[in-house]
């Protein structure tokens, strides 16, 4: 457990963000390893199938995760206030909620997967493999929720190192099982999905055993759980806007995928690969934002708002510097990066085109996420929700349709940073207005 209410803000945030960043790199390697092995050993249709599955998974879990994020914010604020009794109750409430939510998501996903792939106009030759990969993954979603819940709870308590260790083990396990199931057992795309479930399940079970033995405040036992309705209502008040935001973002991702699908399998495969690289490159901004969120929650809970301003300035400087470096690396080596996933010349050309356009604006994305992290940590989630929806549904998606009609698939890529620019400007204006300071929930 790490107390972020004492000490130099920049050093605390950097120390807290670094293990999270490394951990999330390994988390992304789950998807990247699947894509690399599938793309090189099964083919571009299977690669497109893997890519098509993730927006649908994101859509199904986004609302649930949004509510859970509300609980994580409450945990960090109670911990900052040194109210350990309610920290324990918040943990119990969050875990019970996620368990039952995962059951609902599993049945919903299995029931509607075929229709969703048809709705987004996925190329017909890709749908059978996409549905198989998706159905296997959604069957193990309870393990995904469990492991990510444990990780987010620990981060809310100031511990960003422990989740990293389990992520490293899980990622290495996933890589070895991918190679075994696909290259040796010849299970095809099903092997990649099964490997992911086994590795996530192993990480979750190992984490629970370790935490039960080493943390007094964290003892997972169904017989001792206590669901606190009052805390859950607080979680809903903070998490509901975030959950709705994530849901509309996920639907927006599906809408974008439908636009991409109009350009055929090569573009879908290239988009899949470029998104993997893009998601890895953008982790710096996302993790600095998450670190600032916990920092903000703890310091506002402790009644130290002046530290929040210092934390924001320090985080913006650090994340912007790293984002510029990442941008230069991706631009210089964009063709080489795409080649790791696929040797198809057209896939490489389209994917490199995406990276050149989108990664040039990582510094804008970084600023947007860092400011959003502060607002979330304060419990101000309603206005950021509307900002996100406006940037996505009023700017990015209409621009994607319009630009792609004029310029082809490259028009879709230009619409992405356009949405970031609008989101960053509006988030900064809301921060300057100062209303977020009144949203602390404890």
For the structure shown, list the relevant keywords:
442 residues, mainly alpha
Describe the structure.
The two termini are 20 Å apart. The mean pLDDT is 87. Helix 1 packs parallel to helix 11 (305-332), helix 3 (84-119) runs antiparallel to helix 5 (141-156) and helix 11 runs antiparallel to helix 14. The chain is globular, with a radius of gyration of 21 Å. The relative contact order is 0.14. The protein contains 16 helices and no strands. It has helices at 9-41, 44-80, 84-119, 127-139, 141-156, 162-184, 189-214, 229-261, 265-281, 283-301, 305-332, 334-341, 345-358, 362-378, 382-407, 409-433. The longest helix has 37 residues, at 44-80. It has 442 residues and is an all-alpha fold. It is 84% helix and 0% strand. It has one domain (9-438).
Q: What's the topology here?
A:
Layout: H1 9-41, H2 44-80, H3 84-119, H4 127-139, H5 141-156, H6 162-184, H7 189-214, H8 229-261, H9 265-281, H10 283-301, H11 305-332, H12 334-341, H13 345-358, H14 362-378, H15 382-407, H16 409-433
Helix pairs in contact: 1-2, 1-6, 1-7, 1-9, 1-10, 1-11, 2-3, 2-4, 2-5, 2-8, 2-9, 2-10, 3-4, 3-5, 3-8, 4-7, 5-7, 6-7, 8-15, 9-13, 10-11, 10-14, 11-14, 12-13, 13-16, 14-16, 15-16
Portion of residues within helices: over 70%
pLDDT < 50 runs, ≥5 residues: none
> Care to count the β-strands?
0
Rounded Rg: 21 Å
Question: How far apart are the first and last residues' alpha carbons, in Å?
Answer: 20 Å
**What coarse outline follows from CA principal-axis ratios?**
globular
The biggest sheet amounts to: none
**Order of helix and strand elements from N to C terminus:** HHHHHHHHHHHHHHHH
